[in-house]
Amino acid sequence: MKTGDSIFKEYHSYLRLERSLSDNSVEAYEQDLDKLRTFLDARGVDPVKAKCEDLQDFVFATFSAKSNARSQSRVLSGVHSFYRFLLYHNYIDSDPSELLEMPKKEMHLPDVLTLEEIDAMVAQIDMSSNEGHRNRAIIEMLYGSGLRVSELVDLKLSNMYREEGYMLIQGKGSKQRLVPISPEAEKWFAYWMEDRSHWNVKPDFADIAFVNRYGRQLTRAMVFTIIKRLAAAAGIRKTVSPHTLRHSFATHLLQNGADLRIIQELLGHESITTTEIYTHVDIQDLRKAILAFHPANRE
Q1: How far apart are CA 229 and CA 233, in angstroms?
Q2: Number of domains in the chain
Q3: For every residue of 135-196, which 3-state class applies, written as one string?
Q4: What is the pLDDT of residues 35-71, one digit of tens each?
Q5: Cβ proximity of 210 and 152 under 8 Å
């Protein structure tokens, strides 16, 4: 039988190599496992020999009644992952975490901007400034193509097939997908490219689509700042971020009849379940319509 440390090292390799998780995901799983190890060490229980009752006590001791369901799910996912690994590699005969129930996550309905609100944000862009065309192109890419902010800042000119109207996007987990460039996004991106040709872009960033005034890659934080300033200037009271434009892109597609599977492909969601949150957004709109306009609900 291997020692505890060697098993944990093997588990680390399992996460990195067999499950192909990112460094951040591996670190998160191992932090959750450290919490469990600390708890079990305090009661003199080897994690490999833990019983379901031990894991239930860990859950009870770790989470208060007010704990966020999302954080609970994340920690429990780490526990489940470790014991599935032990079972798969024949270190245990049965999985003690099998009967641990995942908490139900709260349904979080993201803020969605109306077309009028997006137009109001666009109207706040100072088109006479050096960054005017760039910032307009950023809005059109986020809202017109549903890009994540990380996908936007990492976008390469060599991955843009503008004549064909597509771009190759490097999404989460290094997964690639083809995303259409909307005509409006292409128009403003062309204006930006004309401006960009007069900027002093550093050689290391020559292939990066969006750069800052110093000729270097635009950061995620700067895109957040641009979007938040435009929303504030437009008088929008909602919580607005680059992701809000992505949410709005998906919601507006759904409201206008787009198939959920198509939206899933455009957004780069691995699971249709992730995309289904937009159906709940749409249902909320229907509920509001009933409350506002149905005669039984009007005074």
Answers
A1: 6
A2: 2
A3: HHHHHHHHHHHCCCHHHHHCCEHHHEECCCCEEEEECHHHCEEEEECCHHHHHHHHHHHHHH
A4: 889 999 998 999 889 988 888 888 878 775 445 666 6
A5: yes
Which residue in 93, 94, 60, 97 sits closest to 77, CA to CA? 97
Look up the domain containing 173 and give its range. Answer: 115-291
Whether residue 170 is found in the same domain as residue 35: no
- 95 found inside a domain: no
Give the other-Cβ count within 10 Å of 166's Cβ.
15
pLDDT digits (tens, 9 = 90+) for 186-197: 999 999 999 999
Cβ(272)–Cβ(264) below 8 Å: yes
Predicted model pTM = 0.60
Active site residues: 148, 172, 243, 246, 269, 278
